[in-house]
Write a structure and sequence with these properties.
CATH architecture of chain A: Alpha-Beta Barrel
Shape of chain A: globular
Bound molecules: iron/sulfur cluster
Largest sheet of chain B: 5 strands, parallel
Helix content of chain B: 25-40%
Number of helices of chain B: 14
CATH superfamily of the largest domain in chain B: Aconitase, domain 3
Structural class of chain B: alpha/beta
Distance between the termini of chain A: 26 Å
Number of domains of chain B: 2
Radius of gyration of chain A: 15 Å
CATH class of the largest domain in chain B: Alpha Beta
Distance between the termini of chain B: 51 Å
Shape of chain B: globular
Oligomer: heterodimer
């Protein structure tokens, strides 16, 4: 069960919004890099985010570059899951590989700052502030397997190979 | 039932007859990383406990995104990748060799290959009939060690192209038009497969331009058949033996068909700050531009420089517009030198950068000032992309870029 506050974003938040290319020189210094998470989407994000927070976005979250640093800095900021109407495919895969849940649902009813409770097992999201309830779409089996182990590396340590 | 190109290639690589929606474990032919995604991949490679490359795999580390490096942090990343490459025996493409996707097309990818790269524009090699898709550092690191990856076989959208390109209209205008139609997520998780009579008039470099940008509509892969034009291209690159013919079956199943008649297209632009925010050049005529960039993995090839040189020959860039040219590879630069294009471009007031990504991602070379407009032949115009979130990026063809450099404002190449 995940519990935290919603940070709401609109449609088309690109990897350049999440972690701008101009900080590529910090990619071997992840602690410094992570200080710039979401900077071009919301410069105040890092000063407001707390452990457990949930990113709630519109369409096509994470479009653009393949930089895995995008989900990585979001995870390092303490975000426990991303809820979005849709997600770009490379970002989706990267987030799951890092053990960061990405859940697809209609996010319109969720307000910025709402307290949310997410049950990964049942697929139900409860909006405690607004009093509503949502379900997220099923994650493909192989991705669920990776997510359950906490990421692709842990998955491979356990199984030694991909399993269908 | 017949198969699409995506289904054919993934069936061959997984050793199973598979169709759209199936999840496969597939053998990877070529895997690569670059200098901004590579260091994390190296870290993950070691964290996964790998110590050597999968034997069946062609693996390459490219130093292209910050080449030559503008600061010590990136120089240290380059060192790390050089050490890694020599330790595990993976190939190294050095500073100045060129952008990964161009070098992959010139020298490495074959029709029918499965190519994965730690760079979203890995899709470029689809122009040669390779199933090429971008992934993150961890996925590529794992493929370095295991020689395989998992994939969902995508549904395919067939794009049927007919007619011929009118004057002033090029492959870049075609793909910008298509992205405008589909939207930035219109092909998410899908394959875009190109076909139709007009393919017989499209060179491999122009197919690479189209395939390069399919990811801007969310696509996983953009596939062209491998035909006589592909064969001639491979021969021209000194690797005719890498050719194999590859076509989809007539009875293949497509989720959707899109027909495009080239004769109806006109020069296109993507406006700030999203690639699907397209308009015709006509509509933007007169927009002041402080910097023009010709290059990148989208349009930094010999025919692109030739197009720009033809328009700029005997003319000058506008005094208030900088003109920056970054050839996509060493091979392109040499060919353009020999053909005299480089001289023409320099005489017109252009600046030639070393082969590589150049100003495309805002790391160095040509970072924009506040409020400036740039017209670039690249593939992305996201806010902040070229190093400054206070700047504005327009995307267009090399012909539109050259015309714009001369006039200092967005200009239809047909008006010159
Ligand atoms: S040229 Fe631009 S889009 Fe192409 S690989 Fe380099 S940074 Fe990426």
């Amino acid at each position: 069960m995940l519990k935290g506050r919603a940070f709401k974003f609109g449609d088309s938040i690109s990897t350049d919004h999440i972690i701008p290319g101009r900080y590529a020189y910090l990619r071997s210094n992840l602690t410094e890099l992570a200080k710039h998470a979401m900077e071009d989407a919301d410069p105040t994000f890092m000063s407001r985010v707390r452990a457990g927070a949930l990113i709630v976005a519109g369409k096509n979250f994470g479009l653009g570059s393949s930089r895995e640093h995008a989900p990585l800095v979001i995870k390092m900021a303490g975000v426990s899951a991303i809820l979005a109407k849709s997600v770009a495919r490379i970002f989706f895969r990267n987030a799951i590989n890092l053990g960061l849940p990405v859940l697809l649902c209609d996010t319109d009813s969720i307000g910025d700052g709402d307290e949310l409770e997410v049950d990964l097992k049942t697929g139900i999201i409860r909006d405690i502030t607004a009093g509503g309830q949502l379900t997220f779409s099923k994650i493909p089996e192989i991705m669920l397997g990776i997510l359950n182990e906490g990421g692709l590396l842990a998955y491979l340590k356990k199984y030694g190979d991909f399993r269908l | 039932m017949g198969q699409t190109l995506a289904e054919k290639i993934l069936s061959a690589k997984s050793g199973d007859e598979v169709g759209a929606g199936d999840i496969v474990i597939a053998r990877v032919d070529l895997a690569f990383l670059q200098d901004t995604t590579g260091p994390l991949a190296v870290r993950q490679f070691h964290a996964a406990g790998f110590s050597c490359l999968a034997s069946s795999l062609k693996a390459v580390a490219f130093l292209d995104h910050a080449a030559p490096s503008p600061n010590r942090e990136l120089s240290n990343d380059h060192q790390l990748l050089r050490d890694f490459a020599s330790k595990i025996g993976c190939r190294l493409s050095e500073v100045g060799d060129g952008v990964c996707h161009q070098v992959v097309a010139e020298s490495l990818a074959k029709p029918g290959d499965l190519v994965i790269g730690a760079d979203s524009h890995t899709v470029t090699a689809g122009g040669l009939g390779a199933f090429a898709c971008g992934m993150g550092s961890t996925d590529v690191a794992v493929s370095f060690g295991l020689g395989k990856t998992w994939l969902r076989v995508p549904e395919s959208i067939k794009v049927v192209i007919s007619g011929s390109f009118p004057r002033g209209v090029y492959a870049k205008d075609l793909i910008l038009y298509l992205i405008g139609q589909l939207g930035a997520d219109g092909a998410t998780y899908k394959a875009l497969e190109f076909g139709g009579d007009a393919l017989s008039t499209m060179t491999v470099p122009s197919r690479l331009t189209v395939a390069n940008m399919v990811v801007e509509a969310g696509a996983k892969v953009g596939l062209f058949p491998s035909d006589d034009i592909t064969r001639d291209y491979l021969i021209s690159q000194g690797r005719g033996n890498d050719y194999c013919r590859l076509f989809p079956d007539d009875s293949a199943n497509y989720e959707q068909r899109i027909n495009i008649n080239l004769a109806e297209l006109e020069p296109m632009v993507a406006k700030p700050h999203t690639v699907d925010n397209t308009a015709s050049v006509k509509e933007l005529k007169g927009t002041r531009v402080q910097q023009v960039v010709i290059g990148t993995c989208t349009n930094g090839r010999q025919e692109d420089l030739a197009m720009a040189a033809r328009i700029l020959a005997g003319r000058q860039r506008h005094p208030r517009t900088r003109l920056i040219i970054a050839p996509a590879s060493r091979r392109v630069l040499l060919a353009a030198l020999e053909a005299g294009y480089i001289r023409t471009l320099i005489e017109a007031g252009g600046i030639i950068l070393p082969p590589g990504c150049g100003p495309c991602l805002g790391l160095h070379q040509g970072v924009l000032g506040n409020g400036e407009n740039c017209l670039s032949t690249a593939n992305r115009n996201f806010k902040g992309r070229m190093g400054n979130p206070e700047a504005f990026i327009y995307l267009a063809s090399p012909a539109t870029a050259a015309a714009t450099a001369i006039k200092g404002e967005i200009t239809d190449p047909r008006d010159l």
